[in-house]
Amino acid sequence: MRQPKNKRPTQRTIAEKAGVSVGAVSRALANDPMMAEETRRLVHRIAQDLGYVPDRAAQRLRTGRTNVIGLILPPHDEILEFGTSIVRGISEALLDSPYHLVVMPDFSGDGADDTIRRVVRNQLADGVILSRTQPQDARIKYLLEAEFPFVTHGRSELATPHSYVDYDNAQFACHAARMLINSGARKLALLLPVRKFTFASHLQQGFMTAVRESGVAHAVINGVNIDSDAKLLESELRTLLTQEDAPDGLVLPGETSGIAALAAIQDLGLVPGKDVRIVVKQTAGIFDSIRPRTPSIGENLLEAGQLMAQLLLRQIAGEPAADLQYVQPAIIDERYIVNP
């Protein structure tokens, strides 16, 4: 039974209901591993029934911590459900911790420098998660110098190690190219992100590994990137496919570009999978329901969110960043396995 709106439940309220001390309630809510699990469950259940919400201001004065994890989230239009999956993964990982997630949207296009400085300067969070890393990322340099806990979705090339969760884009691009070559494609083309991002070089490295092995003709698509508007992507791909010596195999690192490519191919009266083959990086599962069936290689964003939150909590607890790095393997459907 919830307390009346004008009477906010406190830890003392929970203690009286549970028949334990206020100190025990505090330890139970912080998931103290030294406490009996039965007591912890009882306290959490009563807190939930009462609608208990911690007094963040008092908590910060007492511990020096905000119990906030900040996610700086720029637009990711090329990856369907990016924000939803990442937020869900982080939230799930924080469930049994005293931390809660605050999402900080960033549409400035400046790499969220100002947002990060404001978080650090005003102590708005105990740690942050950011994405779209660059080889010499100024945000990462600032956070390292400030000795502020953070985890990135993506790597950098900085000498000082930092915590990250990344996807093996080189593995994706290499396997995708091999799939196209094995299916009979004679010329491959790769769509890249904006070159300033670290994963652009990883994609190109993986792609070049496969084309050099086979000697197949290849190109990098110019004029558009995976962040380009879907209509522009469709138009440019349609133009590309009408050129002399046009590619007949496309490596596309996102669902939006995959959908645009299918539209361009069919608008030209070509047959997907026969006249032009494509392999798409899939994060939302949408290509499982698109016809004709299109080969895809998966990236688990839900898991990425969970991992980033777990690594950040461990870093806040004192573990060194060099031990908190993880690269997710590409999820390859067994139907599309090819020999190295």
TrEMBL record:
It comes from the Bacteria. Residues 9-63 form the HTH lacI-type domain. GO terms for molecular function: DNA-binding transcription factor activity; transcription cis-regulatory region binding. Keywords: DNA-binding, Transcription, Transcription regulation. PANTHER family: HTH-TYPE TRANSCRIPTIONAL REGULATOR GALS (PTHR30146:SF109), LACI-RELATED TRANSCRIPTIONAL REPRESSOR (PTHR30146). This is LacI family transcriptional regulator. It comes from Shimia abyssi.
